[in-house]
Amino acid sequence: MKNLLFLNKYLIKYKSLLIIGTIFILIANIFALYPAEFVRHAFDNIESIISKNSTKNTRNFVLLKYGGLIIVFAIMKGTFMYFMRQTIIVMSRKIEFDLKNTIYKQYQKLSLSFYKKNNTGDLMNRITEDVNRVRMYLGPALMYAINMLFLFTLVISKMISINTTLTMYVLAPLPILAIAIYFVSNQINRKSEIVQRQLSTITSVTQEDFSAISIIKSFNNRKKSIKLFTQECKDYTKKQLKLVSIEACFFPLIILLIGISTITTIYIGGLETFKGKITTGNIAEFIIYINMLTWPVASVGWITSIVQRAEASMKRINEFLDNDEKIKNTGIKKKYIDFPISFKNISFTYKDTKIKALEKINFKLERNKSLGIFGKTGSGKSTIANLICRLYENDSGNIKFGSSNIKDLNLSTLRRNIGYVPQDGYLFSGTVEENISFGREKCSIDEIKEICKITEISNEIENFENKYKTIIGERGVQLSGGQRQRISIARALIINPSIYIFDDCLSAIDANKEEKILNNIDSYTKESTRIIISHRTSSLKNTDHIIVLEKGKIIEEGTHNELIKTNGFYAKMHEEQTKKVINK
Ligand code: ADP
Ligand code: MG
Fold first, then answer.
1. Which residue's C-alpha comes closest to atom 15 of ligand 1?
2. What is the dihedral of CA 519, 524, 530, 535, to 10 degrees?
3. Full-prediction pTM beyond 0.85?
């Protein structure tokens, strides 16, 4: 249970709801208790009325009186049950809300390497499925546990006060019921988990099929997909049927045990009545008590298995909350960062793949100058960008902004000053306008339009039916690679940062347009520092300095013209690339 102790701080936070809820449960139980007694009185009165030969009116009055009382008490009980749900269940929902937010905040803090290690499905599960199981413990399980405690105390003490022998006999089968139900519900939970897992397999199979539908169709692979899907569904049915066969035992088991208790009550109660120790009314009363106890007893097993599952889920959540794979954020917030940006002997290895991506990198970038990074795929270009944004932490060497080490800079200061256009510019499903203004709290449509002219996308957006309000992504217009890149450049330009990092973000744009955009960006960003990463020499020819990477090392550097003159790797690549353009 030690993992669930973490939740106590939330229970304390909402203690008023919990305490009021508990009082409501107690009151509801008191109202639930009396109707059984009214039934006894009714039975006993019928007997005495018969022996007294009373009038029709008194008979009616006696019967209706108890009937009326039972109805009034039932209404009162119902009312307080409503209040008990309104407090305890509401409390559990509030804690669920808090817990989800805590988890989400932790998600936002964890470093990128954490995300590369864990799969999305598992991350989603913690915040949905695991939290839900914990909520089941805080809500229904806690409520029924308190309810059970009161009900047991009240009903059993009432029963004992009437007749101890009968109470003993009648209660005897109940522990067996509790244990049996515990085992059955455990089985049900285990089987439903298997069913749940199979269901997510089916979901991912279909999801993958939908995303790859064009490949499936063009490779004419429909039959294979259908076969796979059918197989998974057959599996699902098999697992579901196993679950059903266990579930089917649940009610018969309860009914059997109630039956046994009822028969015992009548038999033993009959014997006690013959002895004159109780009345026939008491037998009826006891039968009602037995029925009242059955559900709580059944719920002991159910509650136990909910608590066990919540414990397991909470363990997973705690493991995750204790994860310290965060980038330490120590520095104080400032408005701007200092220059020059310098890399001194930077080497970097990705921990999970052990790939050494950078080795002894040195460069210096002055304010308002531009740096080109050239190299083939996998040479380490994007890794440099990741380190500058501090998405990963450098293992050796120093990255400095002015005189301060990157590790001493406040993270939001750093990132607010960088306009990063990543290689795979992800766009959210939303409107064009929302995507472009993503990094800003408020910005006018005119500003957006202005920026779109710079990235040469405005004509295309104006041609969409809803213009800047066009929904893009899954439920909207599908954009081409080049359009996506130009929108993600616009998204970076609009925040007007002091440093821009363009990571190969013109790769899907043709040479002609590339030239135009680069010129526009050049004149727009004169007042900022730029890092342009590319595997195309054409994108870099106007930069102030270029470093050429191969396998994580700088092999050449200089301006475009200098590098051409050196006649090394860069020059060779430049020649090949220009030839290709001319041949086209
Ligand atoms: P480029 O941007 O020049 O194509 P990268 O900087 O992306 O190169 O990659 C450099 C090397 O690091 C490659 O060998 C790549 O496989 C590896 N790498 C890149 N990103 C990761 C990552 N997140 N985890 C592990 N290895 C990575
Ligand atoms: Mg890259």
1. 378
2. -30
3. no
